[in-house]
Hints:
Oligomer: single chain
Shape: globular
CATH topology: TATA-Binding Protein
Helix content: 25-40%
Strand content: over 45%
Radius of gyration: 13 Å
CATH architecture: 2-Layer Sandwich
Amino acid sequence: MYSSSEERALDQVIRYVAAKVGEVCFLTEHHRFSSGFSYLNQIQARGALESQGWTVEEVVPFSSSKGVGVWYAVRNKGWKREEVLVLLLEVSEGVREGYLSLCQTR
């Protein structure tokens, strides 16, 4: 779980990133990885999305030195096409934590 202030900050970041690529977030969702984004955590996160029917494309590979990565995911659900921007953000303020933020764009 994360606090409401963390959620607001994560919302601001994902909405900023979306705006930079000409998108608008309609819905956001955030998940915390208490041990950061190891390669295994990235594989598990991607696998979880793919198991729900998402096709995931890595736009900006995650860099542990920069603490950020960007994915783009799409899926067709019946007649509806869904698109999400996925932001992997890692912070290290005493303890390393990772956040996976989803921004539904359409």
